[in-house]
User: Which sequence fits this backbone?
């Protein structure tokens, strides 16, 4: 696993060095609209701690950080009224997963029928 890069774009957003369109914040998570939305609702949720990926987060975050983060994800989806119609949560991870930003994040996508999960399979 690569070491955490303190200069990744989400670390800068967390430190307030770069603005974001914030939709939610608590002790465990910050959420903001994706700069390049792929659906009517496209929110990124990031933990407050410095974790490269879901692998790093699951291995090294405390139980409180993990439960707080995923409760925040669910709360945001509910605040955006997504559960009734359905929605998708994605954590792109590493090279094969197409992860571009090396600070763990999940995408919350919704507001329309999202279609099949993958457009092409290996
Ligand atoms: P990944 O491929 O790492 O899972 O997704 C990274 C996401 O971050 C992409 O959907 C991209 O549009 C978004 N993104 C990249 N830079 C910024 C930024 O500066 N601000 C916001 N709000 N989103 C960003």
Assistant:
């Amino acid at each position: 696993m690569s070491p955490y890069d303190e200069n990744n774009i989400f670390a800068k957003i967390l430190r307030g060095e770069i603005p974001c369109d914030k939709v939610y914040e608590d002790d465990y998570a910050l959420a903001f609209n994706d700069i390049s939305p792929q659906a009517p609702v496209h929110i990124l949720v990031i933990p407050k701690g410095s974790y490269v990926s879901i692998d790093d987060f699951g291995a090294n975050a405390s139980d409180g950080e993990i439960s707080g983060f995923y409760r925040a994800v669910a709360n945001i989806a509910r605040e955006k009224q997504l559960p009734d119609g359905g929605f998708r949560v994605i954590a792109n991870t590493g090279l094969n997963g197409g992860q571009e930003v090396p600070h763990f994040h999940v995408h919350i996508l919704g507001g329309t029928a999202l279609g099949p999960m993958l457009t092409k399979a290996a």
